[in-house]
Amino acid sequence: MEKTRIAVEDVTFTYEEAPSPALRQVSMQVKPGEFVAVLGHNGSGKSTLAKLLNALYIPQEGSVVVCGMDTKDDEHIWHIRQQAGMIFQNPDNQIVATVVREDVAFGLENMGVPHDEMVRRIDAAIEAVHMTEFAASAPHMLSGGQKQRVAIAGILAMEPSVIIADEATAMLDPSGRKEVLDTIRALNRDKGITVVWITHFMEEAAQADRIIVVNNGEIALTGTPREVFERVDALRELHLDVPHMTDLAQDLRKGGMPLPAGILTVDEMAEEVAKLLCPSK
C-alpha cells in the first residue's frame, strides 16, 4: 500500500531576478487520505509550494514526487495534473464554459474520455458538490461559493487522488467559505481524497489533520492543529493569528480561569466553561 501521496525533498525554488529563494531546502510528506493545511503570511512561500505540487513550477533543487511521479519528468506532467487537481483563489479564472455541465466536462474532453463514461463522471461530480439543480445554469450567474464548487466538480470528474487548494476561499464571503470547505472535507472523509489546503484562515486550518506553517520559504512549525495553535506566542512572532477560541482561552487563563490548552472551537469552549460552572455534571 502506498505510504506517501506527496513527497517533497530538500526543495529550493527561486523566481527569476528575485534576491532570495521563495522556498529553501523544504521537505515534507503527505500521506494518502490526509488533510493537511498550510499556513503562512503573504510572501511566505505557501503559494509557491502549491504550484510545485501541481508541477506548475519545477524545483531548481531537490524533488517533488506526486503519486509516485517526479515532477521533473516531462512524461509525467499531464498524469500528475490529472492526479493532483488544483483549485485557485479566483473561481472566475477557472470557469471556461457558459453552462455548468460543459465546464465540468472540459477536462474530460481533453483526456479523451468516452462519452458514456464522461456522462457518468459529470453527473457524479456535480452531485458530489451538491450542484445538480444548477447543472444547466450559466456559471457567471452563480455565487462565488457555487462557482468554486463547480471548479471542484471539474477536478473531481477527472477522479484525482489529491486536491490542492491555493487560498480557494480567500475571495468568498463567510457562507461561501463554509460551503466550499464543507465540500472538500466531505470529499476527504467520504472518498479518501488527499487534501493540501493552503489558507490564511485559522478556523479553516483548525479542521485539518495536520498543519504546516511556512515562513520566509522554510517550514517553521508542523503538527496537529492543537499542537500548532498551542504555540500562540510563536505564531504571533511569525505574524500569524490563532483561532478566536484559542485566543480567548489564553486570555481567560491569564485571568485565572483554569481552562485546558488546545481549545479550538466554540463548541469546545462551551463544553469546558460548562464543566467549570457545573462541575458535578
Q: Can you characterise this structure?
A:
By secondary structure, this protein is α/β, with parallel strands linked by helices. It has 11 helices and 10 strands. The protein has helices at about 45-55, 75-85, 100-110, 115-130, 145-155, 175-190, 200-205, 225-230, 230-235, 245-255, 265-275, and strands at about 5-15, 25-30, 35-40, 60-65, 70, 85, 160-165, 195-200, 210-215, 220-225. It has a 6-stranded mixed beta sheet, with helices on both faces. Strands 2-1-4-5 form a 4-stranded antiparallel beta sheet, covered by helices on one side. α3 (about 100-110) crosses α4 (about 115-130), α4 crosses α5 and α5 (about 145-155) runs parallel beside α6 (about 175-190). The radius of gyration is 20 Å and the shape is globular. The protein starts with 5 loop residues before the first strand and ends with a helix. The model has no long low-confidence stretch (mean pLDDT about 90).
**SSE string:** EEEHEEHEHHHEHEHEEHHHH
Total DSSP E strands: 10
| Mean of pLDDT | 91
SS-derived structural category: alpha/beta
Q: If strands are numbered along the chain, what order do they take across the biggest sheet?
A: 6-7-8-3-9-10
Distance between the termini: 45 Å
- Largest sheet, described in full? 6 strands, mixed
Helix proportion: 25-40%
Strand content bin: 15-25%
